[in-house]
């Protein structure tokens, strides 16, 4: 079976201490940051192309209103317990590598551009260790929130913070009195050529 390598990219917003969730939800309300997430993950280079979004089960069931439907996007939910894809998801897989193969092998390989991994913790951890993972889109929410779910620690010498990045605002933003900065960390050695 032919395999087309696809870039695997993580996208997350974290506050101090890499906190990213509380009681199954986002700890903050930042509608403009959420819009940046939707715009970034649904962007494709030309009509007919699509991205694949990989969701952990808890994340799927706690997604904010207005996430779905998302243009140009196929959704894969990961679970070892579920027996069929939940409503509005396109696929169910029971491990990360099977989700990646879906995007990298025929027939979907012809149309998928980017695999967007959108958490939670275990999915992020597995994804960032994958050789095709080249970019981490991490919004730095500059505030303290109580969290019970955290983004995994990662090697900042391997994934290097970019001063500027195409399509990513470079200025510090503020909403609801909360400052945040959109950032990208890049792994130069990703195996996606
Ligand atoms: N701030 C942000 O940007 C952001 C981003 C993402 C999530 N979050 C927050 O994070 C929380 C949800 O994340 P979470 O870490 O608690 O849960 P999660 O990863 O969404 O869901 C965990 C479940 O997903 C399934 N799963 C995960 N990885 C798998 C794999 N590799 N293979 C097969 N199944 C897999 C398992 O389901 P089974 O038990 O069925 O096997 C596991 O119990 C929420 O609070 C959400 O709001 C925040």
Fourth-tier CATH superfamily name: Dihydrofolate Reductase, subunit A
What's the order of the H and E elements? EEHEHEEHEHEEEEE
Distance between the termini: 18 Å
Kindly state the number of beta strands: 11
CATH class descriptor: Alpha Beta
Q: Would you give an account of this structure?
A:
- The chain has 193 residues and is of the alpha/beta class.
- The chain has one domain: Dihydrofolate Reductase, subunit A (3-Layer(aba) Sandwich).
- The protein is built from 4 helices and 11 strands; from the N terminus they run ββαβαββαβαβββββ.
- The strands form 2 sheets. Strands 1, 3, 4, 5, 6, 7, 9, 10 and 11 form a 9-stranded mixed beta sheet that branches.
- α2 (57-61) links the parallel β3 (50-56) and β4 (73-78).
- It is globular and about 50 Å long.
- NADP nicotinamide-adenine-dinucleotide phosphate is lined by residues 12-13, 20-21, 24-26, 56-59, 62, 78-82, 94-96, 118-123, 126, 149.
- This is dihydrofolate reductase.
- Pfam families: DHFR_1.
- InterPro entries: DHFR, DHFR-like_dom_sf, DHFR_dom.
- GO terms for molecular function: dihydrofolate reductase activity; NADP binding.
- It catalyses: (6S)-5,6,7,8-tetrahydrofolate + NADP(+) = 7,8-dihydrofolate + NADPH + H(+).
In short:
GO terms for molecular function: dihydrofolate reductase activity; NADP binding. The chain has about 190 residues and is α/β, with parallel strands linked by helices. The chain is about 20% helix and about 30% strand.
Question: How are the SSEs ordered, and which strands pair?
Answer:
Elements lengths: L7 E7 L4 E3 L9 H12 L7 E7 H5 L11 E6 L12 E3 L2 H9 L7 E6 L3 H8 L4 E9 L7 E2 L8 E3 L11 E3 L2 E10 L6
Parallel strand pairs: 1-6, 1-7, 3-4, 3-6, 4-5
Antiparallel strand pairs: 2-8, 7-11, 9-11, 10-11
The protein binds NADP nicotinamide-adenine-dinucleotide phosphate.
């Amino acid at each position: 079976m032919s395999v087309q390598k696809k870039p695997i990219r993580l996208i997350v917003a974290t506050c101090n201490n890499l906190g990213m969730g509380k009681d199954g939800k986002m700890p903050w309300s930042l509608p403009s940051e959420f819009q940046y997430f939707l715009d970034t993950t649904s962007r494709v280079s030309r009509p007919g192309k699509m991205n694949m979004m990989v969701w952990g089960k808890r994340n799927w069931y706690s997604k904010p209103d207005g996430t779905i439907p998302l243009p140009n996007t196929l959704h894969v939910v990961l679970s070892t317990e579920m027996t069929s894809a939940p409503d509005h998801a396109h696929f169910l897989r029971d491990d990360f590598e099977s989700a990646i193969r879906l995007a990298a092998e025929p027939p979907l390989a012809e149309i998928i551009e980017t695999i967007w991994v959108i958490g939670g913790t275990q999915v992020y951890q597995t994804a960032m260790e994958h050789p095709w993972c080249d970019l981490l889109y991490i919004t730095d929410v500059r505030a303290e929130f109580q969290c019970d779910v955290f983004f995994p620690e990662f090697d900042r010498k391997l994934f290097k913070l970019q001063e500027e990045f195409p399509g990513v605002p470079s200025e510090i933003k503020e909403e609801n009195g909360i400052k945040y900065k959109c950032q990208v960390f890049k792994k130069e050695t990703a195996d996606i050529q």
